[in-house]
Each structure stands twice: as structure tokens, then as C-alpha cells.
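Batch 3, record 17
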Amino acid sequence: MSKILAIESSCDETAASVIENGKLLSNVVSTQIEVHRKYGGVMPEIASRLHAENISIVIKEAMETANCKFEDLNAVAVTRGPGLIGALHVGLQAAKTIAMLYKIPLIPVHHLAGHIYANEYVSELKFPLLAVVVSGGNTELVLMKNHLDFKVVAETRDDAIGECYDKVARVLGLPYPGGIPIDKLAKEGKHTYNLPTPLKGEKTLDLSYSGLKTNVINLVHNLEQKGEKVNVADMCKSFQDVAVSLVIDRTKKVVKQYDIKQVILAGGVSANSYLRSEMTNAMNEMNVDINIPPMWCCTDNASMIAKVAEKLYQLKIFAPLSIGADPNWSIEEWNKF
Ligand code: KG4
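Prediction for the assembled complex:
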């Protein structure tokens, strides 16, 4: 039996959830998107300040919605990394204070493990499993032979796919976060612009998004210099086709190589409608089970942290109050702190 408060503050969402024996009692998310939109991306200093302003309110609301008193909690869980260091520290300090005051264990949770376990809200995980983690800060294919056993088998050499979406959107004059308008406009466009496939011809499982981003930016600037109008919907479609097909290609290769039973999507870019349908088709063709998190659980939230926290609570994986945040915490080392 356990009642756990989970806190998430790794990027631009301040979030808190209460979970009791697998049942989510509350899920409060306060997003800073409107503020960062002005800058076309997340401003780390502003993110930290807004987390500091919002965290108590978000926690209070999560506790009240769950009809839960702090005295009733068995543990408090928090995202320890990866993410923006200043942002992570706000959630961590709040969690430590609650742990200290109410003499309950502190559970440090890996942010990407959270994104992966969000899938448990809709389906049981089946091993060996491949988690396709696609977010604003990360792009990696994670092999799981069992619960909490993570091995990164492929990852981006440079930018994350979400970062690439956001920068392409910015050069096209679309609002942050760029994935959403690109996804929408690509449906109205045609693949008319020729953008090279990253790492084409290389025998590798690596992914890469910085070259694709630069190619779009250069193409847009060249067209503008020549006085030609960029067809934004066509550019979105041309870009998205290349960006998504790279993920699909690497997923298919890893699925074959490791005899994968189930593929799951994780992270903010898993909200992308084209990726969702292309991945479903590709896995259906390969006769591999595919699981996609519900839309409410794709972008950052604390219910996904709560899911992992329940498992760690059972295993008694707790952290001392002296623990610090780790902006580059590897998922393979999720239990080292
Ligand atoms: O997982 P997330 O909320 O934050 C990180 O931990 O990074 O992911 C945010 C990223 C942003 O880059 C955003 O543009 C992208 O997810 N995103 C999308 C879509 N919705 C959000 N990318 C493509 N298509 C979407 N529909």
C-alpha cells in the first residue's frame, strides 16, 4: 500500500500528481509555454524562476484534488534529471523539504524512464521492448529486457528531434513549441522540397538532426534571398517526412536486430500524428506490438513520474536528502546517485 506525491520540473512544465496503489488521484500541470513562446524556445533562467513561483501552488492543487494530506503520504518522488539544472533544482528542493518535514522517503526518478512508463497507463509492457524516446531534449532508442532495465542502443549524434522541430518552426515563423504547428501544416502540404536524409549511406544505427535543421534554415534563407516565397506547408511536409522516416528506419533495424516484441513511443514528439501513424503501420507490417501513450501523457507531466515512483517505492530505492540534480543523468544509470 502506498500513497506517493510526484513532482516534475525538468523543463517548462511545473507538475505534481498523487498516486495511490496504481490509481492516479490527481495530475496538475502548469505550463510556461506562453512565456517562452516570445523567445522561440525555453529560456532556462526564466523557466527556473517560474518553477519557483508556481511549484507550491501546483503541489497544493495536486494534494487538494487527490483529497490527500501531507501526513498521509508514504513517499515523495521527483524528477532528478535529465533536464535544465536550475529547473530541476526547484522540484528537487520542494521534494526534499516535504521528505524532511514529514519524515518520508525521497524517490529520485529519471525523466525518460517516466516518459517510457507513461505507457503503462494504457498497456502492459512486454519484453524485450524497444522504447522510442523522442522529445525536445532527447532522441534515443532504449532496449528493455525487463522492468527498469534500460540499454541505449541508438541515439542522436547531435540535436534531439524535438529541438529540430522547434528550430525549423522558428525559421518558418511558426510559434513555439514548433512540433504542433508543423504537424498540423504538414497535413496540408506536399513533399516538394528536397532535403537530404541524415547519415544516408552510413552503416550506423545513430540518428542526427542538426544537419537537417541547418538544411532547412539554409534553404529558407536562399529562397528568401532570391525573392522566392517559401511554401510553409510544403516545407513542413518535406521536413517532417525526412525527420520521421529516420526514426522509423532506425526502429525497424533495431527491432530486427534484437527480436523486439513491443515498441513503445515516449516523449513530447510522440504526440506527432504522422509519427504515430507511420510507426503503427511499420510495426503492424513487422507483426510487432506497438503502444503509444495517450495524448495527455505525451508531454511533460508528473503522472509519468508517479508511475515509476511506485515501482521504486516497492524496491525501496530512496535517495539521501543531500542528493543533487543531474542534468545529464544517463537512463542506464537511473539507480546511481
Ligand atoms: O517531452 P517534452 O514535453 O519535453 C522534453 O522533455 O523535451 O517534449 C517537448 C517537445 C518539443 O520540442 C515540441 O515541439 C515537441 O515535443 N512536440 C511535438 C508535437 N507536440 C510536441 N513534435 C512533433 N509533433 C507534435 N505534435
